[in-house]
């Protein structure tokens, strides 16, 4: 595999929410690299810290109660984790674009799409409305929105769900960012529309070559899109591998469980789908042992006393489990 | 927007008609009539002269005929003649409408400006000392009746420290300069505003807090625009949408509050006329006043609906 330039380097990254009622340890010391042009998938159940781990890098979580407790997020030689709140703005939208889950609520319903498209461009490049609108128009064409000129003047509620998400993608691309964070961009859409959006992103990736972090709890979607997949559980990365490898040789019991609960992965139709028993933990205390131990079929004494570190099994396949 | 406006105006017409029927029926349902009210002071009145008087005043017609007559006169702007003072109701209302509108309008503008601003600040600094103080104020302000605020202010700002006058709209002998009116209006307008400020504060705080947590505000931030623009362009605009409706709902409340506060401060508005009309059973005056009040409420609803459509395109395009 060719050695690619690293765009984003995350080390020992921890984020917690300190609310009056409790402390929630959302991200608990994660490490990964994102290479130029790479698409990295992040999967995991609801509440596993996928959104927080990504959005907090751009300080797009409420702080307080949220707080980056430790670690570094190196992007182009700058540690985003150490930046003051008012110094992060040049990175938002310009270096790193964000695509949100629900295009219905992510757009401001009382402002036209065109107006919402251009404001980031105008802020970062000090461009005129006209220049920014021209850019918006070309991106609407790129993402395949019919009659783009008139649609720019429409309000979000006048768009269909799929078109709205196309517009959202176009908006994230306005400043030609080096990297995109896509937080479950297809979850709120119909299955057929989902496929269209995935195809669109594949297409765009070829043309533009941006790096993408694609968050999803749908392993099927991630499989077709990502070069590499990380599985998160309770704020930890518990397995990381190239997507092919992960689907063919899942190592962690949790990953195996996720794959077994996936209908499209189940080749033998007569075999029943299984779901992982138990509930994901409420992360109000840090684990001593393995966070998955309470739900794990293969739990051993050691798992309760010590949290396994993420360790390489092969060059490109890492897993945090004492079974390996 | 034009179609929406026309539709709203057309809907207002049958509502107005229903209101006239209600007003008329209510006046008829009240016990006694003008004649018995006029005569109640005098000792022996013979039935014949009372009958004659009723005949003259048109009180012997059937209710339906009386209503139709009244409605047609309304259409020509004739609100009838007072049974008590024998002056035209339209004139009586005409001279009093201005001061009431002035007092109400001032209170409304003041309470919107102060209440909404404080509410937004309170939300932006949630849980700060200022926020806590304002929340307590909003709670107190909503649990105290309007005349009590008026008396309280009179006591402290007119009796203990005689800074402001407590009666009338202009100083005796003065011809009503702007400053003089403002000086006289200070206490009544303030009494009237305090509760509205509390109300607007509470709602705009809640509205802003809700909006600040919504997805599109984070989307706006994710684009790297200035926080000030995020707040003003994205959050504030959406937070104000429910406030527009709230303001509309508060205009009738403000009107009834003005009727009370005008009595407390002897403000020469519709309030005293209402009082007289009720105690003296001056039905033409009472009906005229109710009619004018209804028009004020109806107009404010209309303006609210139009303003709502103006700020929210989802209404405009439906
Ligand atoms: N503002 C907040 N205050 C307190 N806790 C929070 C806040 N935001 C997130 N959390 C907590 O952080 C944890 C991780 O949440 P996160 O949104 O990252 O999960 P996720 O993996 O993205 O889940 P989903 O699939 O539902 O989007 C959760 O336990 C959540 O309750
Ligand atoms: Mg999420």
Feature tags:
heterodimer; A: alpha/beta; 8-stranded mixed β-sheet; 12 strands; B: 318 residues; mainly alpha; MetI-like fold; 13 helices; 78% helix; binds adenosine-5'-triphosphate; binds magnesium ion
What does this structure look like?
By secondary structure, chain A is α/β, with parallel strands linked by helices. In chain A, 30% of the residues lie in helices and 24% in strands. Chain A contains eleven helices and twelve strands. Chain A has helices spanning 50-55, 103-106, 113-125, 129-142, 148-151, 161-172, 191-208, 219-225, 243-248, 253-260, 301-305, and strands at residues 6-18, 23-35, 39-43, 66-75, 78-79, 96-99, 179-183, 211-216, 228-233, 236-242, 311-314, 317-319. In chain A, the strands form two sheets. In chain A, strands 6-7-8-3-9-10-12-11 form an eight-stranded mixed sheet. In chain A, strands 2-1-4-5 form a four-stranded antiparallel sheet. In chain A, a hairpin with a 4-residue loop joins β1 (6-18) and β2. In chain A, α3 (113-125) packs across α4. With 318 residues, chain B is an all-alpha fold. Chain B has 13 helices and no strands. In chain B, α1 (2-29) runs antiparallel to α12 (283-311). The model of chain B has no long low-confidence stretch (mean pLDDT 84). Chain B has one domain (89-311): Orthogonal Bundle (MetI-like fold), CATH 1.10.3720.10. Bound molecules: adenosine-5'-triphosphate and magnesium ion. Residues 17, 19, 24, 26, 44, 46-52, 62, 65-66, 217, 283 of chain A line the site of adenosine-5'-triphosphate (ATP).
